[in-house]
Design goal:
This protein is mainly alpha-helical and 369 residues long. Helix content is 54%, strand content 6%. The chain folds into 2 domains: 189 residues, no CATH class; 169 residues, Alkaline Phosphatase, subunit A, CATH 3.40.720.10. A 4-stranded parallel β-sheet has the order 1-4-2-3, with helices on both faces. The longest helix has 31 residues. The protein is elongated.
Length: 369
C-alpha cells in the first residue's frame, strides 16, 4: 500500500503539472503570436521544455504536501504542546481534535498561496499592478483561493485519497501524459539536424557603457583594447553606428528586436519587452539553435521579459550589486556543453560600468599618463 501511495503522489503531480504546463504553453503561443508568425520550430522546442518544468514543479510540490500529511499528527502534537505552554488551563484546548485549529491552518495555507502566487504572476507576467488585466486576475485568483479553502475544509481528503489509491485512479490517469512526455523528450534525440555544419554559432557580446572613442580600433592612442583590436583585424568594423537610446532597457530592446518602435514601447522603469515582438533569440531558436544568455544588468532581468526565446538565462550576477563581473569561465562552460549543437550565446558585461573599481593590474595601468 505504501508503494501505491508513493506512485499516486508522483502521478498526481505529473497530471497537475502536465495540465498547468499545457495551459501555460498555449498561453505563450497566443501571447507571442508564434502561429501567426509561422514559427513552428520554436513551438515544437518549447512544448517539452514547458511541460518538463511544470511537471517537475508540481511533482515536487506534491511530495512536500505528502510529507506534511504524513507528519500531520506530529505537527498537531507539537502545536498542542506549545499551546499548553503559552496559555493557562482555562484556555487549553485539544488541538488535535479542534476543528477551529484545522480551519485556521487551512486558511493560513490558502492565504500564503494567494499572496505568493498572486505576487509572482503580477510581477513576472502581468503589466502595471492596477491595470485591468492585473485586477481581473487578482479577483479571479481570490475567488479560486476562497473556493479552494472551502473545499479543503469540507472534504475528507484522507478517505478520498485512500479510495483513489486503492483503485489506481492516479496511475491510470497519469499514463497518457507520461507517454506524451516521453515521446516529446525523445523527439530531439531521434530528429537529425542535417544542416548543423552549415550554420555558424553566434556569440553576441555587449559591454555596458563602453565608449567607442576609447578603443584602439577607433583610433584611441592608449592601448585599452588589445584583444578587440586583434579580433578586428580579421573581422568587420562598423564606423557609422549610433545607439538608439542612452540607457539599457530601450537600447537593448531595440537591437534585440531590430525595430525602432521600442523607443516608444520600452522607455520607463516599469516597461517590459512586448511578448508579441520577435526577438533575435526567438528567431534563432525557431531555426534550430540552442539559446543562452548570461547577463549582469538588472534592467535585463526576466521580469522585464528580456529572456524571451532563451533556453538558458543566467541573471545570478545581478544579485551582487557592487561587483557585477561575469566569469568568462561560465560562458566557456556553456560553449563546451553545447559545442555539438548550433548555439546562440548573449553576454552582457558590466565591468566598465560604475562603480569604477577595476581589478589589478588594470587599476594602475594608465596612472600618471
Amino acid at each position: 500500500m505504501k508503494i501505491k501511495k508513493i506512485i499516486a503522489v508522483f502521478s498526481a503531480g505529473l497530471i497537475a503539472g502536465f495540465i498547468i504546463g499545457l495551459g501555460k504553453f498555449i498561453a505563450d503561443i497566443i501571447t507571442n503570436k508564434y502561429i501567426e508568425y509561422e514559427m513552428y520550430g520554436i513551438i515544437i522546442r518549447n512544448l517539452p521544455q514547458v511541460l518538463n518544468k511544470w511537471v517537475l514543479l508540481l511533482v515536487s510540490y506534491m511530495i512536500v504536501v505528502a510529507a506534511l500529511l504524513l507528519l500531520w499528527p506530529l505537527i498537531l502534537r507539537i502545536a498542542e504542546i506549545i499551546w499548553k505552554m503559552l496559555f493557562s488551563d482555562s484556555l487549553r484546548i485539544n488541538v488535535t481534535n479542534d476543528k477551529r485549529f484545522k480551519k485556521a491552518v487551512v486558511l493560513i495555507f490558502c492565504f500564503i498561496t494567494f499572496a505568493y502566487f498572486g505576487w509572482a504572476v503580477n510581477y513576472y507576467w502581468l503589466p502595471e499592478r492596477f491595470s485591468a488585466d492585473s485586477l481581473i486576475f487578482d479577483a479571479g485568483f481570490l475567488l479560486f483561493t476562497i473556493f479552494q479553502a472551502w473545499i479543503l475544509i469540507r472534504t475528507n481528503w484522507r478517505d478520498f485519497f485512500e479510495r483513489a489509491v486503492g483503485k489506481n485512479y492516479f496511475l491510470k490517469l497519469a499514463l497518457i501524459p507520461a507517454a506524451l512526455l516521453i515521446l516529446l523528450n525523445l523527439y530531439p534525440l531521434v530528429s537529425s539536424e542535417t544542416d548543423i555544419a552549415d550554420k555558424p554559432n553566434v556569440i553576441f557580446i555587449c559591454i555596458d557603457t563602453l565608449r567607442a572613442d576609447h578603443l584602439g580600433i577607433y583610433g584611441y592612442e592608449r592601448n585599452t583594447s588589445p584583444y578587440m583590436d586583434k579580433l578586428a583585424e580579421s573581422g568587420v568594423v562598423f564606423t557609422n553606428v549610433a545607439s538608439q537610446s542612452s540607457w539599457t532597457k530601450t537600447s537593448t530592446a531595440t537591437f534585440m528586436t531590430s525595430t525602432y518602435n521600442m523607443l516608444d514601447r520600452v522607455k520607463t522603469e516599469e516597461d517590459k519587452l512586448p511578448l508579441e515582438v520577435n526577438t533575435l533569440a526567438e528567431i534563432l531558436k525557431n531555426n534550430g539553435y540552442t539559446t543562452g544568455a548570461i547577463i549582469a544588468n538588472p534592467w535585463l532581468l526576466p521580469q522585464f521579459a528580456f529572456n524571451q526565446g532563451f533556453d538558458y538565462y543566467n541573471s545570478s550576477y545581478v544579485a551582487d550589486k557592487t561587483r557585477r563581473r561575469i566569469k568568462v569561465e561560465d560562458a566557456i562552460d556553456y560553449i563546451d556543453k553545447n559545442k555539438s549543437k548550433n548555439f546562440f550565446l548573449y553576454l552582457h558585461f558590466m565591468d566598465v560600468h560604475n562603480p569604477y573599481d577595476p581589478p589589478a593590474p588594470f587599476n594602475t595601468m594608465f596612472s600618471g599618463v
